[in-house]
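Recap slide: CBF1-interacting co-repressor CIR N-terminal domain-containing protein, sequence and predicted structure.
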Amino acid sequence: MNILPHKSWHVYNKSNIEKVRRDEAKAKEDEDKKLERQQLAATFNTTQDREARLQMLRDRANKRLGADTSAESKDDHAQSLVPSEPNKHINFWEELEASGGTSGENPEAQADKKAAEDKWERQITMYLDKAAKEPAPWYTTNRRLSGDKEEEESKKVPDDPKQKAKYFKKRKREMRDIEREDPLSVVRTSLGGKKTSNTHIKSGHDRSREDGRHKNKEKKTKHSHSKHTNTSSSSSKSIEQLRAERVARERAERQRTNALLRGTSEAIDSDRNRHRYNSQFNPTDTEKAHQRYRRD
């Protein structure tokens, strides 16, 4: 416990005691100043003090007003030096109107508007000389190539004979397809005009399709002929023959039913021989049926 007085936080340490005394003195001084201000305020509320304060405020206001009046006089003098203008409304675009900027319109907007109007007019208006101005369609022009195009096509031809033959074969096939799909050729054909030589050239696929059509037509003809012969032969039979055949079928069916009911071997054997399993779908059942058939 002897080391306790040496601690800085000890209450009865000398430094702490001195600090407490200083704080108390400062607090007392602040309290005295506060009381003095309160007393001064209380004494200032007297009539003389109020009049003195009011006079002080008036003097201060007069000084401020004099400074303002001097500044206003200076401004009036400066404005008197500037030439006066007649009173009129404020126009923020006076310079622009004087330069003539508002008289015209935006040229770019006018150009775009005119282009849109022209485009719409071309769409809805039909001109009589339009066909003369436009180029002819590609299917009405001559098939022959110009000199420049012939040179370009000749450059594309390979030097190798095999490749050259393949190239010409491919080119011939392309030209044949073009001729086949040419609208002008279709129009000429429908009008009974002379057909071009290329339209007679048909590919193997077209020939096979035509051969198939001929075969189907022949089959249909044969089928109709056979059907006609059967119909004629059946019609040639008399009613008595048809009745006799029906009676024979019924008798055979009745005999077979009686044989099955009696359980004769002939009906069972015929039934077994007629109904047999297929090994593709039922291999196990097929093998069992074959074994049973062998035992019998």
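The first helix runs from residue 14 to 44.
Residues 160-198 form one domain.
(End of recap.)
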